[in-house]
Amino acid sequence: MSYQRVKFYQTGTFTVGNRLLDESNRTVQAGMDRTNSLNSGHRACQGCGEALGARYALDAVMRATHQQMVAVNATGCLEVFSSPYPESAWQIPWMHSLFGNAPAVASGVAAALRAKGKTDIRVIAQGGDGATVDIGFGCLSGMFERNDDVLYVCYDNEAYMNTGVQRSGSTPPRAWTNTTQAVGKDPGNPMGIGKNLPRIAMAHGIPYVATASVADLHDLEAKVTKAMSIRGARYIHIHVPCPLGWKSDPAHTIKVARLAVESGLFPLFEAEGGEVTDRTPIRKKVLVEQYLELQGRFKHLLHPRDEGALEAIQAMADANIHRYQLLPLKA
Amino acid sequence: MKQHIEGSQAVAHAVALCRPEVMACYPISPQTHIVETLSRKVKAGEVGNCQFLNVESEFGALSVLIGASAMGARTYTATTSQGLLFMAEAVYNAAGLGLPIVMTIANRAVGAPINIWNDHSDSMSMRDAGWLQLFAEDNQEAVDLHIQAFRLAEELSCPVMVCMDGYILTHAYEVVDLPTQEQVDAYLPVFEPVQVLDPQDPVSIGAMVGPEAFAEVRYLAHNKHLRALEEIPRLSQAFQDIFQRSSGGLLKTYHTDEAETILLALGSVNGTIKDAVDDLREEGWPVGSIALRAYRPFPSHALRHVVKGAKRIIVIEKDLAVGKGGIVSSDVKMALQGVPIIVDTVIAGLGGRSIPKASVIDTVKQACLEGLEEPHFLDLNWDAINRELTRQQAQRRSGPTPENILREIGAPGASPI
Amino acid sequence: MEQKPFAITLNPASSLANHTGTWRTMRPIYVDHLPPCNQGCPAGENIQGWLYEAEEGKYEQAWRKIMEDNPFPAIHGRVCYHPCETTCNRGQLDEPVSIHAVERFLGDYAIEQGWQVEAGVATGKRVLVVGAGPSGLSAAYHLARLGHAVTIIEAGPKPGGMMRFGIPQYRLPRNVLDAEIARIVAMGVSIHLNQKVDNLETTIKEGGFEAVFLAIGAHLSKRVDIPGRDAGRMIDALGFLKGMDGQTVPKIGRRVVVYGGGDTAIDAARTAKRLGAEETILIYRRDRGHMPAHDFEVEEALEEGVLTRWLHTIRQVDNTTLTVEEMTLDEQGRPQPTGRIETLEADTVILAVGQEVDTGFLENVPGLDISSDGVIQVDASMMTGRAGVFAGGDMVPAERTVTVATGHGKKAARHIDAYLRGSEYRKPSPNTVATYDRLNTWYYTDADKSRQPYLDLARRRASFEEVVGGLDKDTALLEARRCLSCGNCFECDTCYGVCPDNAIIKLGPGQRYEVNYDYCKGCGVCAEECPCGAIDMVKEVR
Predict the structure, then answer these.
(1) Is the pLDDT of residue A7 over 70?
(2) How distant is the Cα of B72 from the closest Cα of chain A, in angstroms?
(3) Residues 6 or more apart from C405 whose CB is under 8 A from it?
(4) Which of A48, A305, B102, C431 minimizes the number of CB atoms within 10 Å of its CB?
(5) CB distance B204–C10 less than 8 Å?
(6) Count of other CB atoms within 10 angstroms of residue C331
(7) Cα separation of C312 and C257, whole Å?
(8) Cβ contact C537–A91 (<8 Å)
(9) Do A69 and B89 touch (CB under 8 A)?
């Protein structure tokens, strides 16, 4: 990544802020003047990863665009917990239309701005994994294919949480959801199905695709900032744990996200024009079990142990590590 | 400037003069000529800085317009039939958000069986979505209604469908008086949205509304339509002032003053009906007709006013509420509650079936002399139906009904190979 | 707003009306825990505090923070055995922060810059300090800061005590020692050299002192019973090392044996090597693992060519022949004779088997409790049985190091001050220790410890030049930044950033943060992610 890495501790390559760094090199989230695009009083569950991811991403866009941004939101948790009448938590121009059309609505906003010659205002579309990989996929693909000037941000919590935890095309193998129950043979979500949307986005050849995690704010902000330096269709896929749906401790939201990255299950990378151009190396590699054991949705794999499943999931992580070269050889 | 021109091209011409800023279209017959023409005009730079988006579906098309309209752009699309149903969720959404989008419906039947010809099943399916629905009788009116639609939509913050019969109007070449840019500009002011996505005034549009306020929101949508009942005649008059011709309004009457029997219909069939009225009147039958211009809002008051004194009203409609009968006639009955008048329903013209003047005349006579069963299906081939019903009774797996019917009536290409 | 569509369009941040804090069952609170380095420091330094300043390059602030507790940063940066680094949590992550190296840099930098500490507003009280070693000088310094007039009486020819006479100059250059003592003298402390207190009560009376701090150290070398002991060939280590600072360098032979296993033994062996002994053998009753000496010093001695004979005792010395017996360790680790005897040749034998206190001058002081080895008992306020007479350093029961002695000086000064004011000094009860498990170390960048330069071996064997070099300014800065700030907020903004509810208020530089309990849902992400463990989750009580 291009952001400044400083090689000592308090200087926070990894902490949110850093009193030792020049203000301009600190994260957006460290700033007392950050937008708080999604403000207090929203009704997200305790420890909501999506609420956090949305503020991270949008605040970074706000800084990158000098507060010239409008956001379109798909139906889902983020929409429902942020904007139930009579209170909205948004401090940005924000619009919700439908579950499956956020990319198209955003395309429309961008088209209107183009028609009016107001191209200094930038457009964000955002939604959960259901809105993105499933119901809104057609519109998203259209937005990509036309290369509309929109940054689409997917907050991936790996199931339909708003409706009470049902499986989506992004639900990981063997995870419990209310429609992939932990019963019968091979309990949980079947192995080997689902969608890898970042790769699908890359296949459209759009200018910029990246994955990010709420566990690595610097990486996330750098990617959002980079995305905003580019025109055309861009896609960022952010991993956001859901304590409710993952049956994890709300306090562990970031920890769980971190373990997903550090195990290799959620690789952090960037792609431009369809080619992977960079990846964020794993800092301290962990086994997938360390990630799984914090989440009740995988309990049936560990109590009693399902060696076959654990090996298969570890193999997925290892394949990612190999594919994206997440463990650089030490010099 | 009068010109011999295809209906689709005339409409495209009028839409272009309305200075739309964003159009998003997905092709579907018989709407294609409209969007093709607009696409060419935009690409040729004839529509200012208008953005024309080729999208992946009708759902996408209307969704694009929802975003563009919320950003303060004047927006337009066209669709029909399956396309309208595929965008259904967005149709409701656009109205709920109060976005003044104008959409042409090139009316067409809804499958299955798949059918590309004209009836009104498609727009009827969206009659309660909150959009205004205006029906054109001919291509001149189609052109004029589009211009009025933009102004109406923007004054009320409410989307408008302009319905014109597929093929019958869209593909018909007629002489049309095409408006000039100056006329349109004089009639249609610059769009000033009541709300817009604006970094300087960052509101949240599209909140989730619970039981505590949902009913009020719906009432306000209804109230908007009540206001439309006043706006539509007013804007029709304003149109006449500039364009020097009468166009639009809630409804148009034909010899209703002394009529005992009044025919009522939407769209292009009114041409046939007026011919039938002329013939019947020549034979001495006291008949007249009403062409409904505005179907939503439904002009109940205006209707009561024009039918007073009549004994019978025959609604000829190109749609069917399966299991019930007439859709338009139901509205008419509601509107005429308490008025001592017979309301007949005639289901006609489904899937592009022609409505011959003779059939209309026969039906009127039958109604007046014997009365009509409710609903009455015009020119139904009872032999084919009865044979199919017999077959179905005899054999559970009797095969697909549409193919059986086609075979019964000996349509070309329908016989087994 | 009224023109906006009813209900479906909302004003920005109208959600602030919704106080989600009512959901909370646990509440986060900011806490301060005692960093293990501070806990481990015998001089009571706020190490984390001065590292924090040093991290920003605020060297003078950092130095002044040290000076609140310890007047000898340059000395301690060299000779302290830094227990702080043993307890440093970073040691469990990679390697401890090289605290002593940063302290030494700050001390040296202060000398270079000529920074001075001012004496406090004069109280008019007079205090006598007996002994100008680390403990006495430290007490004098702190008393002077508190405004008391201090007189030090020192028996030796120069101030510094064991810092001068026990620690070789290749570990502590004398210009450093002199500079840090000079700073105390400049505060108005008067030091009377070459004077012995023969009768304490008389001295007190004559000098008009209202309190006394005794810190004469332990300068009497212990004796061991070795048959055939030859006074000419056998010398005691302390005398030997002291001689190095005298007019004439002690004479030793070609082959030197040092007997003992403490730091003094090591110092003696390394000094002998530097004086030109061709062969220096360290003889110790137990093995290397049981030596009281600090291992890095043993290592340095071995590097310099000192030979060792672990598990041996000297049985007899006859002229140049030493009879030694091999020992074995029993289960308790005590040496037991094996009966296996051998002989060695040595021209000089240096005995380094411990020191005792010379308490002769205290004989007529009433109420003192002096044990057989001369150690004086003191109470928790460092006061002896005689009111107003305090004692510290090597002459009271404690570990005998410069740092412990310096700490005694500070502690005694605080109690003496309270005594003079007729009150009682109460040390604030310390916070619980910030243990390693409180930390979220993921947030800390990997950063290897900075290495101090070493003098090359050839020069180490032949000269008294300082062996270990200091860090330069930049390296010291980087090393300071390795501090994890265990248990105390260092304003990293992580809590402020990770709260999904914006419920942390950032108060601005130096002001830390506050929880906005109107909106805090009590999820605990802030406490879980806090790198340094400065947030606790406690049960919500309403």
Answers:
(1) no
(2) 7
(3) C133, C134, C135, C138, C162, C215, C217, C392, C393, C394
(4) A305
(5) yes
(6) 5
(7) 12
(8) no
(9) no
Q: Answer whether C527 sits within 8 Å of A251, measured CB to CB.
A: yes
Residue C10 in contact with partner chain B when CB distance is under 8 A: yes
Tell me: the pLDDT tens digits for B308-353?
889 999 999 999 999 999 999 999 999 999 999 999 999 999 999 9
**CB-closest option in A82, A96, A138 to B56:** A138
Residue of B nearest to A66 (CA): B199
Contacts 24+ apart (CB under 8 A), C419-422: C419/C211, C419/C381, C419/C383, C419/C388, C420/C123, C420/C125, C420/C127, C420/C148, C420/C210, C420/C211
Predicted complex ipTM: 0.95
Band the pLDDT of C229: cuts 50, 70, 90: low
Report CB contact under 8 Å: B93, A112.
Answer: no
pTM: 0.92
Bond before B112 cis per omega within 30 degrees: yes
- Token digits for C434? 């910030």
Mean pLDDT of B124-128: 98
In SS3 terms, C362-427 reads as HCCCCCCCECCCCCECCCCCCECCCCCEEECHHHCCCCCCHHHHHHHHHHHHHHHHHHHCCCCCCC
Return the pLDDT at A10.
53
> Is B89's CB within 8 Å of A145's CB?
no
Domains along chain B with CATH numbers: 2-243 (3.40.50.970), 251-377 (3.40.50.920)
Contact flag C493-A17 (C-beta cutoff 8 Å): yes
Chains that touch C (3 or more CB pairs under 8 A): A, B
Chain C stretch 234-263, residues whose beta carbon is closer than 8 A to a beta carbon of chain B:
none
pLDDT tens digits, residue range C519-534? 999 999 999 999 999 9
Tokens 């840019």 label which residue? B181
Sheet holding C321-329, edge to edge: C312-318, C321-329, C335-345
Q: Which of C8, C11, C12 is facing B206, going by the closest CB pair?
A: C8
Distance, CA of B201 to CA of B198 (rounded, Å): 5
Mean pLDDT of chain A: 94
Contact present, C25 and C525 (Cβ < 8 Å): no
Chain B environment of A44 (Cβ under 8 Å): none
Q: What residues are paired with B344 via a beta bridge?
A: B314
| C423 close to B (CB below 8 A) | no
For chain C, how are helix, strand and coil distributed in percent, rounded to 5? 35, 20, 50
What's the distance, CA C524 to chain centroid? 38
Model pLDDT for residues C336-367, shown as the tens digit of each residue: 999 999 998 899 999 998 888 888 888 778 88
State both tokens at A263. Answer: 């195990």
CATH classification of the domain holding A225: 3.40.50.970
**Structural domain includes residue A302:** yes
In total, how many domains does chain A have?
A: 1
Residue-number span of the structural domain to which A296 is assigned: 18-324
Nearest by Cα to C184 from C245, C133, C219: C133
Residues 6+ positions from C224 with CB-CB distance below 8 Å = C259, C351, C353
- The residue with tokens 């990293």 is C492
List of chain B residues whose C-beta atoms are within 8 Å of the C-beta of residue C3: 194-195
Cβ neighbours of B56 in A, within 8 Å: 138-139, 141-142, 145
- Would you say residue B417 has pLDDT above 50? no
Q: How far is CA C364 from the centre of its chain?
A: 34
For chain C, what is the radius of gyration of the CA atoms?
28
Query: Best interface-test mutation with B: which of A109, A122, A147 has the largest number of B CBs within 10 A?
Result: A109
Best probe of the A interface among B54, B77, B197, by most A CBs < 10 A, is B197
Subunits with 3+ Cβ pairs within 8 Å of A are: B, C
Measured between CA atoms, the residue of chain A closest to residue C449 is: A8
